[in-house]
Specification:
The structure holds two protein chains of two kinds.
Chain A (H helix, E strand, L loop, with lengths): L3 E4 L2 E4 L5 E7 L5 E8 L3 E10 L2 E4 L6 E3 L9 E3 L8 E8 L9 E2 L3 E5 L1
Parallel strand pairs in A: 2-11
Antiparallel strand pairs in A: 1-3, 3-8, 4-5, 4-9, 5-6, 7-8, 9-10, 9-11
Chain B lengths: L2 E3 L4 E5 L4 E3 L2 E3 L5 E8 L6 E7 L7 E2 L2 E6 L4 E6 L8 E9 L7 E2 L3 E6 L1
Classes of the chains: A mainly beta, B mainly beta.
Amino acid sequence: NAGVTQTPKFQVLKTGQSMTLQCAQDMNHEYMSWYRQDPGMGLRLIHYSVGAGITDQGEVPNGYNVSRSTTEDFPLRLLSAAPSQTSVYFCASSYSGAGANVLTFGAGSRLTVL
Amino acid sequence: AQTVTQSQPEMSVQEAETVTLSCTYDTSENNYYLFWYKQPPSRQMILVIRQEAYKQQNATENRFSVNFQKAAKSFSLKISDSQLGDTAMYFCAFMKNPGYSTLTFGKGTMLLVSP
């Protein structure tokens, strides 16, 4: 049981490049979400999904796209990276209904945009 | 929308001592969950303790306990018998109930436990 797996763990990009942060969970969780962590800012919600085919914006969605074609995967796409997107990114998942308040977090992905 | 405020950017405590981390929040919701997460240098997010708003009894988990004051919208974390392994960033977080399992975090408190 791997839990929530994020790849890559580290990535360096140049301004304007695109990339996808992968998130996969093997717990059959309906809810998945992406957060970014910046120094002195805590974690802030980027996008979330309540099931396959359903996504919605969080607090800081600009510059990011998501899709949820399967229950297991919730990739986060940066179409044109900017230095302001330098951050640590966390993916999380949980059940809906009973147990929905217990999130499982991935190990995080550190992204640097030069 | 809800907000979570942690007014102590850094705190320090000596081993075996007790320390309290503060958290206040603002919401118009009546039912919700509150959490404390620990983030050690490994970067992993670790759930320390959680509180359901409709429960008046304060949650406890071994050396960790909370003081939940719903009317004052306050949710402090007390760590007893502090250990070196408690050194970490601590985040207070809010979750609506029912909701979509999304969290609103405070900015964090860096706790340093010294020998």
